[in-house]
Amino acid sequence: MQGRCQFANKGFKMTTKRSDIGVYMLAGGKSSRMGADKGLVNLQGKPMLQHGIEVLQSIFSEVTLVSNNPEYLRLGLRIIPDLIANKGPMGGIYTGLCDSPFEMNFFVACDMPFIRSQAIEYVLAKAKDGEITLAGIGGKSQPLFGIYPKIFREEIRKNIEHNQLKMMVLIQELKSFTLELDVLGIDHEKTFSNINTPEDLVRMQTEK
Ligand SMILES: Nc1nc2c(ncn2[C@@H]2O[C@H](COP(=O)(O)OP(=O)(O)OP(=O)(O)O)[C@@H](O)[C@H]2O)c(=O)[nH]1
């Protein structure tokens, strides 16, 4: 854990950022529905992925982007390219797990700009060693918002080698569980609103 002193309304407040877990944002997709790299399209005055990055940076000391697009370098983040190209989100998760020095690793997609820090904190608090810990709503898991242990790296590689790229098939195969966000009493459905098309982007320009 890394200590950080901040001024609060009343005197000093000690806050800490987590530095004991790998944190990866997947931004290496084709964005074929959007027609331009999703992470870089303008949402409310900044690149779409910047919204999620800021939430992650409020909790974690380092965030790494998994992407092959050099345009992301201008954002000043740590970036790593996919080890195996064109394998979808599973390829991005495999890359992050190979890169990470940590057993526990939080993964999130770049196209979910309204992720809530409470949802991330909840997943961190409830994560179990040796299990994939996902968040979900109404019984539906979101595979691109959760914690993946490094020990599953080889199983994931085998899925990729067999061209089994469906995240939900992988999740069912490995030890995993899903935390319902409904219990949090926040506007949890926003956490998973993702933006895939130019129409989604227009609709979400006024969302908070
Ligand atoms: N690193 C990495 N991330 C990926 C890859 N494919 C998808 N992603 C990310 O996974 C998340 C969900 O991606 P999708 O919406 O399913 O796919 P997409 O390719 O981005 O978009 P479409 O082409 O419109 O389906 C986004 O954050 C993508 O950037 C990949 O091959 N590598």
From TrEMBL:
Reactions it catalyzes: Mo-molybdopterin + GTP + H(+) = Mo-molybdopterin guanine dinucleotide + diphosphate
Compartments where found: Cytoplasm
Keywords carried by this UniProt record: Cytoplasm, GTP-binding, Magnesium, Metal-binding, Molybdenum cofactor biosynthesis, Nucleotide-binding, Transferase
GO MF assignments: GTP binding; metal ion binding; molybdenum cofactor guanylyltransferase activity
InterPro entries: MobA-like_NTP_Trfase, Molybde_CF_guanTrfase, Nucleotide-diphossugar_trans
All copies of domain MobA-like NTP transferase, residue ranges: 25-167
GTP-binding recorded as keyword: yes
E.C. numbers: 2.7.7.77
SUPFAM superfamilies with a match to the protein in the record: Nucleotide-diphospho-sugar transferases
Ligand binding (Mg(2+)): 111
Keyword Magnesium annotated: yes
Major localization listed first in the record, in broad terms: cytoplasm
Residue sites binding GTP per the record: 26-28, 38, 82, 111
GO annotation, biological process: Mo-molybdopterin cofactor biosynthetic process
A cellular-component GO term for this protein: cytoplasm
Cofactors demanded by this protein: Mg(2+)
UniProt free text on domains: The N-terminal domain determines nucleotide recognition and specific binding, while the C-terminal domain determines the specific binding to the target protein.
PANTHER family noted in UniProt: MOLYBDENUM COFACTOR GUANYLYLTRANSFERASE (PTHR19136:SF81)
Biological role: Transfers a GMP moiety from GTP to Mo-molybdopterin (Mo-MPT) cofactor (Moco or molybdenum cofactor) to form Mo-molybdopterin guanine dinucleotide (Mo-MGD) cofactor.
Family assignment from sequence similarity: Belongs to the MobA family.
Protein name per Swiss-Prot or TrEMBL: Probable molybdenum cofactor guanylyltransferase
Organism: Rhodonellum psychrophilum GCM71 = DSM 17998
Gene this chain is encoded by: mobA
